Amino acid sequence: SRWGSERPEVAMADKRRSVKVYALNDDQRWDDLGRGHVSSTYVERLQGIALLVHSESNGTLILESKINPNTPYQKQQETLIVWTEAENHGMAISFQDAASCHEIWKAICQVQGKDPSVEITQDLLDESEEEQFEDSPEIFELLDLPNCELGQLAQIAEVVTSALTSSICKERLALVLENEDYVKKLLQLFHTCEDLEDTEGLYHLHEIVKGILLLNKTALLEVMFSDECIMDVVGCLEYDPALAQPKRHREFLTQNAKFKEVIPITNCELRQKIHQTYRVQYIHNILVPIPSMFEDDFLSTLTTFIFLNKVEIVSMLQEDDKFLDEVFSQLRDKTTDDDKRRELLFFFKEFCAFSQTLQPQSKDALFKTLTRLGILPTLKIVMGTSDFQIRAAATDIFTYLVEYSPSMIREYIMEEAQQSEDDNLFINLVIEQMIGDTDPELGGAVHVMELLCSLLDPDNMMATSNKCGRSEFLSFFYKYCIHNIIAPLLSTTSEDICEEGNIVGSDKNNKNYLNDYQTAQLLALILELLTFCVQHHTYYIKNCILSKDLLRRVLILMNSKHTFLLLCAVRFMRRMIGLKDELYNCYIIKGNLFEPIVNALLDNGTRYNMLNSAVIELFEYIRVENIKSLIAHIVEKFYETLESIDYVQTFKGLKIKYEQEKEQQSQIGKNLHSILYSKIFFGSVSVLEEKEEVSFKENIEEGEAVMPPLESEIQDQYDKVLETKKTEEDENLDLPQRASSGGFKFTSSHSAGAGNGADNPNDSSMVGLVDCSDDEEKDKEDETSPRKRPHLSL
């Protein structure tokens, strides 16, 4: 019962003691055995206290290690306990917090009879800390580094390499290297080895310098990356024993990599910092090997060193107003030649890249300074040049600005539109950069398209001071910019429209143009942007699609041989249908715009590919969402063609939906006919009875006889009412009416079966006595709504 009462406490302790377990493999690398919860518990089978680690994911046992009285345990960095299970079989437990590590450390020390204040549990009872380290052979060697001589390089390399396995050893080694100015002496030996062509010594120096970098000590990095030492450090790292021939990194840094001052830098400290940062970045990216999993933080100090250098460079440039002002002045100057302007932009692009390392507050201050200096008007000037590299660099700089603040870009665009008297707008220059990309893979165009999506994303407009700002920007964009985006699409498909209503007709030359890979890629990008607009700008893009007959143009692209372009066209139409907007549906039906989709499905044959799946999904969506107008159109127009496709039940399902709706409408028509006839009959009888009563009284007074009304008179009155309503209905020829068969009737020449219901007597009776006054008022209220429900004919 005592153990049972303590179990909840153990479970609570396990939750706090979250650890990772590591084991040293034969290659002297640490393997991660997993994450779990550690506890110290008496294990009867082992006859002693043991360290147990259970997996936090499934509770399985990761580690079971008995705490032996004579096993040396070592606590490092307050969160790591290391020991050796057997010969060369090292184990390590890494804790999330120092408190949990201290609790387990106390349990280990209690078993071994040691004071928990010690960090190594072997013969430490009566010795001072210095004597403890002297009794450890490994530590003793580290404290007694060999003299810095050619003959001792092998031993020095062995000491440095072995120190990397222990945090304490790393600390002691770093202290010795700092105090005795050991690094500079080693680099002097490097020159001696090169002069003597001592390859073995150069290999040892490579291992030593690499090990010193992995010590992760800022003080040592500052020495090694000083102007006096950094090129010698690069030289040592050239002699990697794994390479057949040393790489000439120093030659590259001193001869190939040339520093250009586009604007003279008078600050010597700034110039030195720029040189140092470039070289240290080169060492980090090219020369230093990627650390193993257990050494993932070994280069954190080197990364921090580079980061702080970049912050310092940006800050020093930002504080020098004259320097940045001179950069912008030369960029805006019309007399500046293209070579100079290109170099200025390359410099400013790198400056913006460095600025990404700044904290948010510092970044805000920087971009406010750039805005004050006129960064956007300057970019507009350089984007108007004919040099591709200049425009590409300007686009990259524009990217940093959009990522920082899309709202700032939108505000400038709107201000420019109000002040400018010509159509040479900044955003149109950006669009031209996308359309005119000469890269075969259109890498730059893809990038610009993403920027435009960011600017047009309503989610990025939430911070606007008022809702009017969003609508104003979108109205401006669709009035002054959208035509530039769709221009390649319209020009590519213009010759394919031989006559009104013809989609599949194509000119041979134009079809070859559609098959051009780079053209197809550009059109795919444009369709992707338009699809984004359909999803996010329902009202604004609708007017463009309907006025430009844009979907018809897009579906002409189904003639291309590039499947990715066909998929973009299908996706565009699918997005439109997904809105379930009856105005779009009527546009699709009247234009017979499902025909190229059906043809593409049939041309694809029995191939099971993305095109097949996309088209099937389009029709399946219409079936599942029960979009009645489209179902009726597809079944009436294409079912005979699609009936043979039976590997999916989509088209049979559409037919079933169509028949159900047809039956339902037929039944409604019959019921309403009966109800209306009875109401008219009895209403007429009631009126005639009243007249009869009045006439009877009058005739009584006048002495005349009374005759009952004839049945033919009632029928004549009913027919007159129907004829009057039919005349009113015929005046509205443009609106589709649902026939008793469940379909829609269109007056357009594209309408299939417009006259099918003309001879149906039920149709006349169904529309006989509709009071449309309420519907007309509702139409006025919902004038801006994109969706209109078809009136049910009563």
UniProtKB/TrEMBL annotation:
Gene3D superfamilies per record: Pleckstrin-homology domain (PH domain)/Phosphotyrosine-binding domain (PTB)
Pfam families according to UniProt: EVH1_PP4R3 (PF22972), PP4R3 (PF04802)
Domain Serine/threonine-protein phosphatase 4 regulatory subunit 3-like central, chain residue ranges per copy: 155-660
Gene Ontology CC: nucleoplasm; protein phosphatase 4 complex
GO MF terms held by the record: protein phosphatase activator activity
Region annotation Disordered: where it falls in the sequence: 727-794
InterPro entries per UniProt: ARM-type_fold, EVH1_PP4R3, P4R3-like_central_dom, PH-like_dom_sf, PP4R3-like
Domain PP4R3 EVH1-like: start-end pairs: 16-112
GO biological process terms held by the UniProt record: DNA damage response
Annotated family: Belongs to the SMEK family.
Name of the protein this chain belongs to: Protein phosphatase 4 regulatory subunit 3C
